[in-house]
Specification:
147 residues; alpha+beta; Arc Repressor Mutant, subunit A; 3-stranded mixed beta sheet; two-stranded antiparallel ribbon; 40% helix; 14% strand; globular; binds zinc ion
């Protein structure tokens, strides 16, 4: 099992459990995002009696700890993705093939300024996920729909 991941969980003061490590391992092996059901099916090969609610709970705990990312698809299904990039960044998510690419660009400085100037408020956090079609899917002239 991945000792770096175990160390990382400890740093976050998250309990290192075999199930959490297995979920991270499964997501790490995947180039794209997975649904909770897909993760559950893979988990059942390692933990025969594991239930879907347990998988859901562990996914949420890992996502809350920012160990894994939630991907909200336009089809309204929730997915999860592992990314080891520790620099502040956002994700460009392909809605067709599930590829995820890092975008190390963030306009939060301008947004903070806008919120301060127009609303006299202060930004404490932000979420940004950019959905689209990746280069490969554009090449294949993807015309499908995800709804
Ligand atoms: Zn794609
Ligand atoms: Zn990333
Ligand atoms: Zn940002």
């Amino acid at each position: 099992m991945d000792s770096d991941v175990a160390e990382y969980l400890r740093q976050l003061r998250m309990k290192v459990t075999p199930k959490r490590l297995a979920i991270i391992d499964i997501l790490k092996k995947e180039s794209g995002y997975l649904s909770p059901e897909e993760i559950w099916r893979r988990m059942k090969k390692r933990f025969a009696r594991i239930g879907l609610p347990t998988v859901y709970r562990n996914l949420e705990e890992l996502a809350n700890g920012k160990v894994i990312y939630r991907i909200t698809h336009p089809n309204r299904q929730l997915y999860y993705f592992y990314c080891g990039n520790s620099v502040h960044h956002h994700h460009f998510v392909c809605v067709a093939c599930r590829a995820v690419n890092d975008i190390e660009y963030c306009a939060i400085g301008d947004l903070q300024e806008e919120v301060r100037r127009k609303l006299s408020g202060r930004v404490v956090s932000h979420l940004l996920q950019v959905n689209g079609l990746c280069r490969n899917c554009l090449k294949k002239n993807y015309k499908g729909t995800w709804r």
